[in-house]
Amino acid sequence: MATPLDLTVLPLHRRDGIDQPNLPGVHIATPPRRTARGRGNDRLVLYVNFFGNVRVPPQQHAELLASLAESYYDKSGTVTSALKAQAESLNDFLLQRNLRGGKSGQQVTGFLTQLVIRDNVLYMAQSGPAHGFLLSPNHIDHWYDPQTAGRGLGLSRTAPVRYFQSSLEPGNLLLVTAELPKEWNDTTIKGAHGQPLASLRRRFLGQAGHELSAILVEAQAGQGQLSLVRSPAALERVAPETKAPAETPPQRPTPTPAPKPRIEPGPEQPQAQPWEPVEQTPTTPPATPPVSTPQAARPLASEPVQRSATVSSSPIEEPHEQPQFTVGQPKRGNPLAGAGLTMIEVARRFSGATGNFILGARRWLTRMLPVEEDFELPGRTMAFIAVGVPVVVITVALVVWLQIGRVRQFDQYFSSATTHTEFALTVAEGDEKRKALTDALFYLDIAEQFQKTDETAVLRDQAQEALDDLDGIRRLDFSAALTSPLSNNATITQMVASGTDLYMLNSWDGSVSRAFLTGSGYELDRNFSCNPGGYGAIIVSDLVDIAAMPRDNEEGAAIVAMDGNGNLLYCLNEDSPFAVQLVTPDSQWGQPLAMNVEEGDLYILDPLTNAVWIYFGGTSAFRDAPRFFFANQVPAMGDTIDLALNRDELYLLHSDGGMTTCQFGASVDTPTRCTDPAFFVDNRNGDTVEQMPETSFVQIVRTPPPEPSIFLLDELSNSIYHFSLRLNLIQQYRSINELPDEAVTALAISPSRSIFLALGNQVYSAQLP
Known about the structure:
3 domains; 5-stranded antiparallel beta sheet; alpha+beta; Methylamine Dehydrogenase, Chain H; Phosphatase 2c, domain 1
């Protein structure tokens, strides 16, 4: 598999212009001896910043992060669901603290960055508008999405989380900071790759001005270690900083000549601006949006980076050329910035008109009154005019400004989306078409922040359908399957679907629930029992996996469940469950993780002992000693998270999304042979790859004949990838309807080709074509 990586975490801390040896709020952790399912290969880095008028002591930093790390390894399920749970835990703590201090005005907000490294895959979860820079030899990825990552933790009952994922290679660097120093520029980040840590520390701190709070993570080939640099003096023993080669300043993009059509980007997408973290105020855009070709990149860094906590009234400096960073997610600035006349300008014009009106009215009243009487407005009237008129003027100005600005912004963004869509439909398949469609949806998202119309809906459908065709995506009509979801703290991690029944494993308490089909959906069976506990002399612990039993089996069970100690629990629809203790393998149990029943035989995956065991069914009913699946060739299974069977063929899913396939051999003449790694064939571009790009597969399901296939659940995009048995990509399925904003946790497909997706405590279903 991939080369093991050693990770070094270097804190960077400067306060009041003085470099600090330590940075509160940084914590690293490696898996303890016993972890929840799926956590055994995860290395964890936590980094938190607190903002507000309440000081959080360093000791409390350490206690909070240590508690979060401990609960992470106790949380089963997907990486994203575990990271989400930690963000919610810290959010609840800060929110309760803020509510208690509300009367005194004491408030604190947390910016939390969570890093999980599983083998050579990096997962990052941001809560709060922090910045992440992934530095590779040839490009820089800027991970920054303040709209999705939210304002931070402790401000509402919902914890905002934005996820990023990337593969790691030896030499890669990850820089994370809650606030970009305004002194940093493009050269601060560019050229950092390949420098020793001591040089990078001097580089980033030396150009940070008076304040910096950041961490730098370096990946190098090694043995999978994770370390935290606690003494900067240790770094100074390395070789002096090597000067990076001089870089050619980036050039302004040359407009593409006719006849290729030109596309208008949104009004807040300047052609070239400095990559400088300046603080900006709303500016007035030109009457016509700037024009560029559709090939022009739209990197996040093309916009001035804003500080997350303050807004300055100073003007923006004259723009210079800037580096082009590869962006994981487009950054969205203030949509009202630069919308026509500023409010102050409108108010000034209204104020002048109102003053002229009052002066004219006074002169007219003077002429209308008798000559011998001097006209003088009462003091109260003058006071009312002095106070009331400005309020009215500002209110009217604000209403006019907002209305004019919103209409103008909507028109400009909708026009850009229309132009990009029309251009995409005129070009052949390829990256140019994909980028135009992606840009069209980007501008539509912003336009619909101002107004949603039938025209935006039609254009969105047109652009999304064209983009789906490029990506091989088919949209299914998913809807809630359960008439009432499971309890709020439930997380469904495994499912089994029969013709009319749905069985769901809840990882929160290790129990299984049953739902049966009715005219209004699947209704929970309150009488069904399939729970951990004592069954005679057998103690069944939390259940970790479930599988459907063949019809007319000797036990009369609908499903069989397994706990983490190799005990089986047979669960019946109309009767009480009963437990059976399997014959222990010769090598003893390590940590049984997953199982499958194929043609009446039971297969159990135990990654800790690097084994798959077969318990034959038939008359023995899994009562005999198991047989080791492999022969002389035994693949590495320490990072395996799931398995599937197609008769004698075994599919092993690894945590990095890779696959191993093995053909069982029943005799010495035909031993078991494995393909490790097995390659996917991406029919969208003809590539043959070990891992599908931009995916995080967490579960594998095999459907039976007449059309046997492999389905893989992707938690990053909440989609299902459909492969042939030879791992050729057939289709990708996603929901046509908007699903809850959380990661999918389980997948099941019924014999009638109904597909079920679990998100938290609810299940959504659709019909496969």
